[in-house]
């Protein structure tokens, strides 16, 4: 994978709690990025080409961030992606998070085709094979408290290298 992804990151005690879970279930993934929700790059809109100029991305994304207020969200129970060994905390794909995703998708940047429909989530594991014990433990995770996301973060992902943060914007609508 070599492309540019747009995320929003968890903050504070919630980010620490989710990071601890990720470290337990998938240390390799947990070391690559802080706990986050991918807004574009994997579902709903594919990644941006790696040669997309940073100035162009800023120009197109700054108005989106300027008119979007911070968004309060709640995780649902963990779900396993069908046919894959990936477990994530899912989010409602409708409402303000969908509106933000659509605003980004329609901002005029050259997103590549998406592989899946928009499925917002925070991944608990990505790389290791799942044992039945680990799967049971992940599926029992519950995070009930609402939380607020306040940023857009733009990363260049060039596996197997760690992602590089290109810039971030505050949601300030």
From TrEMBL:
Ligase as UniProt keyword: yes
Record's keyword terms, sorted: Ligase
Highest taxon in the source lineage: Bacteria
InterPro entries according to UniProt: Cyclic_Pdiesterase
GO MF annotations, alphabetized: ligase activity
Full protein name: 2'-5' RNA ligase family protein
Lineage: Bacteria, Pseudomonadati, Gemmatimonadota, Gemmatimonadia, Gemmatimonadales
């Amino acid at each position: 994978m070599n492309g540019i992804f747009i995320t929003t990151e968890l903050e504070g005690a919630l980010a620490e709690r989710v990071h601890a879970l990720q470290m337990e279930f998938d240390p390799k993934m947990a070391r690559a990025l802080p706990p986050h929700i991918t807004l574009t790059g994997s579902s709903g809109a594919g990644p941006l080409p790696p040669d997309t100029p940073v100035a162009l991305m800023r120009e197109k994304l700054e108005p989106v961030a300027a008119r979007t207020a911070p968004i309060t969200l709640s995780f649902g129970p963990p779900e396993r992606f069908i046919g894959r060994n990936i477990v994530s905390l899912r989010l409602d794909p409708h409402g303000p998070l969908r509106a933000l995703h659509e605003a980004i998708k329609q901002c005029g940047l050259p997103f590549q085709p998406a592989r899946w429909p928009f499925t917002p989530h925070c991944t608990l594991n990505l790389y290791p094979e799942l044992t039945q014990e680990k799967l049971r433990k992940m599926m029992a995770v519950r995070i009930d408290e609402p939380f607020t996301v306040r940023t857009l973060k733009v990363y260049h992902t060039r596996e197997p290298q760690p992602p590089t943060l290109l810039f971030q914007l505050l949601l300030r609508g």
